[in-house]
Design a protein that fits this description.
Blueprint lengths: L35 H13 L4 E4 L2 H12 L11 E5 L3 E11 L4 H20 L2 E13 L18
Parallel strand pairs: 3-4
Antiparallel strand pairs: 1-3, 2-3
Helix pairs in contact: 1-3
Length: 157
């Protein structure tokens, strides 16, 4: 019995044919980089979805943000109160939140961490190594809200 050499597939000397083009699966060729701002947006949206989170950011940043939001053409900043450091395969996040009065802050912080980690890891594929949360304020029921969606108050009724 004689062996016929295979001419259509190159041989690496190990007896295994080499792939015809490139190296490996097409989905693994190249590199994907994710900007800090992308991770900040994902984390900001995930944190705002948690019950008990009233707002994001410190009082000063919320004040400037409220002014910016009222400017024609301005948009709400979903990254307010979020800072991300992104590496090649990991991310670390710092969040500043305002909680509603009456909620257990430790429970809200835990829920924010869980939601942010799940969303960032699912959407980016990055490993979230830490989520630091600073609670900068508590929203009392009788306080005026700087982050109202309509942004306008009636002067005359």
């Amino acid at each position: 019995m004689t062996e016929t050499p295979q001419r259509n597939s190159p041989d690496s000397g190990s007896g295994k044919p080499l792939s015809k083009r490139g190296g490996g699966e097409p989905g693994t060729r190249g590199r994907t980089t994710i900007a800090d701002g992308v991770v900040e947006k994902v984390a900001g949206m995930a944190a705002r979805d948690v019950v008990g989170v009233h707002a994001m950011g410190s009082g000063l940043s919320r004040t400037f943000g409220a002014v910016r939001d009222r400017v024609p053409g301005g948009t709400k900043s979903v990254t307010r109160g979020v800072k991300a450091e992104v590496g090649e395969s990991q991310a670390a996040l710092d969040l500043e939140i305002v909680v509603d009065y009456g909620v257990a802050i430790s429970d809200v912080a835990r829920d924010v961490r869980e939601n942010v980690v799940a969303a960032v890891e699912r959407m980016t594929g990055l490993e979230v190594v830490e989520v630091n949360i600073a609670v900068s304020d508590v929203k009392l029921p009788d306080e005026d809200d700087d982050d109202d969606d309509d942004g306008q108050q009636q002067r005359v009724q």
